[in-house]
Amino acid sequence: MLNVILAAEESEGGGGADLLLPATPELIAGIIAFGIVFFFIWRWAVPAINKSLEERQRAIGGQLQEAEKTKAEADGLLADYRAQIAEAKAKQNEMIDEARAEAEQVKADIIAKANAEAEQILARARHDADAERSRVLVDARSDVANLSIDLAERVVGGSLDRDMQLGLVERYIQDLER
Hints:
Elements: H1 2-12, H2 17-20, H3 24-156, H4 162-177
């Protein structure tokens, strides 16, 4: 069947080339029409497209410059922020150091005050002990003197001059203390 169709086509004309190529007057008219359309496009459409592209390029360039400016401002603000943070940390460390120094001073003051109070208490205790010892010694002297006199009276069997005996006992005790 394919052979029949091919044979019919060959019998009608001189091959398949006239099917592909248009007739010469049509070809010349198409070339002229294309030239006219090309001229109008080149003359009016291309400049409008170029102008639009240039405006777009300028707008994008302006946006890029604005973005760079904004980025520079942001970088400046970031640097300021970092500087403020560093300054705040330095102040914080300084305040901590001052607080530590003050705490050490308060601690030293409290220790000094406690030591002074302890010394006062110790001095008072020594004074009280000395006073008590003196009182006990006076009482002991009196008791020793009385006992000595009572013993001497019993040994002698009579009464002795009490004042004279007390004076003797006192001198004896003083000699012992030295």
